[in-house]
Design brief:
about 180 residues, mainly alpha, single chain, AhpD-like
């Protein structure tokens, strides 16, 4: 089992991450597709090969092809959008806010999966990438779709734990 591989690869100092990962796997706040897609999108956003490989092996049997592609698309789109909109949000020159982005984002209109699930995955990746404007936008859409604050929080818990695991794996590789 790939989650077990991840937990076994974590050093003792990251024991809390192991426990948090186990708790998130068992968490029932999100449905199976929402949770699996969130894990995959967040793993991709972490950019850690070990994590991506193991999470992919874990979730590929829990997501159909369209959901698998939707989770990957969420990570890809937010990789671009989070940089652009974080710049627009943080720039002192507010003229950028009224300019068209001129970036292709067609997948957002037709992600191939339930729109709310796609938004959930985008939110989690936006948290990893630190884009406040995107976090606010995706969270508002999720609330309009009837998501609870607990469901939103669970996606961010997944993002935070996977990001931390990726950081540990990267650091441990550097120590070798």
């Amino acid at each position: 089992m790939s989650i077990e591989n991840i937990k076994n690869a974590l050093p003792e100092y990251a024991k809390d991450l192991k426990l948090n990962l186990s708790n998130l796997i068992m968490d029932e706040t999100l449905n199976a597709q929402q949770k699996a897609g969130c894990f995959l999108a967040c793993a991709m956003a972490s950019r850690n090969k070990i994590l991506v490989k193991n999470i992919m092996e874990e979730v590929e049997n829990h997501l159909d092809e369209s959901a698998l592609n939707g989770a990957k698309a969420a990570a890809a789109m937010m990789g671009m959008n989070n940089i652009y909109y974080r710049f627009v949000h943080l720039a002192s020159n507010k003229e950028y806010q009224s300019m068209q982005a001129k970036l292709r984002m067609n997948i957002i209109a037709n992600p191939g999966v339930d729109r709310a699930d796609f938004e959930l995955w985008c939110l989690a990746v936006s948290a990893i990438n630190g884009c406040g404007a995107c976090i606010d936008s995706h969270e508002a859409i999720l609330i309009k779709h009837g998501f609870s604050k607990e469901q939103v929080q669970t996606s961010i818990r997944i993002a935070s734990v996977l990001h931390a695991i990726a950081c540990v794996f990267d650091a441990e590789e550097a120590f070798k």
